[in-house]
Amino acid sequence: MVWNQIFKRFSFALLTVTLSTTLCWAWQGKVVGISDGDTIKVLHNGKEEKIRLYGIDTPEKGQDFGRKAKKFTSDAVFGKTVNVKPVDTDRYGRTVGIVIYAGGTMNLNAELIRAGYAWVYDQYCKRPECKVWDFIEAKARDEKNGLWTMSNPVPPWEFRKNGNSNHVSAVVSEPTSEQTSVVYHGNVSSHVYHAPGCQHYNCKNCTEVLHSKEEAEKAGYRAHKECVE
């Protein structure tokens, strides 16, 4: 009942924000890769462009629910044409933007929050829709969606600050097959992925970590012919 009352209060804001963010999309493109829950690769003018979703932060690959956040994004948009509204460019040269899919009806940024796979990144989320996203996050917390089933999930910015891959969550991790699988390295320049033991495994551009051949190929990588069986 409480959420229904709050929702009525926000319904007009939701409608206003939806209209304001869908009337003037800069460009469309096909999603050809999923780096993680909040970063995708979209074809733009014949070239891949990395899009970091604006205003949200999903769990890192080594965190609880990191893999599920990536799967949610992949299931939602991989191989599909999306609308991209650029907001900014980050220090890595990636486009920071809002992504709309499903024929212009679904906001990926907001849906990740709603499903409980993302925090609103309040430090950087300053647009009008951020207030609506805060409401969506509060509702996801209350309903214990996704990562909110955990009593004290660690925000990804804290995880990164504490040393990312060296950080151990205080909460029991969700069981996943990635804990025992081979870790491949993807070359973000050549889009070739390498297995451990390959001479190019730790190359300069081998910065994307992939937990299976299926994940690598779904993200647009091809196997190195000499070191991946």
Would you kindly provide a written description of the structure presented here, covering whatever features stand out?
This protein is α+β, with helices and mostly antiparallel strands and 229 residues long. The protein is 29% helix and 26% strand. It is built from 6 helices and 12 strands. The chain has helices at residues 2-22, 66-77, 108-114, 129-143, 156-161, 213-218, and strands at 27-36, 39-44, 47-53, 56-57, 81-89, 95-101, 106-107, 119-120, 184-187, 192-194, 206-210, 222-223. A 5-stranded mixed β-barrel has the order 1-2-3-6-5. A 4-stranded mixed β-sheet has the order 11-9-10-12. A two-stranded antiparallel sheet has the order 4-8. β5 (81-89) and β6 (95-101) form a beta hairpin. α1 packs antiparallel against α4.
Helices and strands in order:
Elements: H1 2-22, E1 27-36, E2 39-44, E3 47-53, E4 56-57, H2 66-77, E5 81-89, E6 95-101, E7 106-107, H3 108-114, E8 119-120, H4 129-143, H5 156-161, E9 184-187, E10 192-194, E11 206-210, H6 213-218, E12 222-223
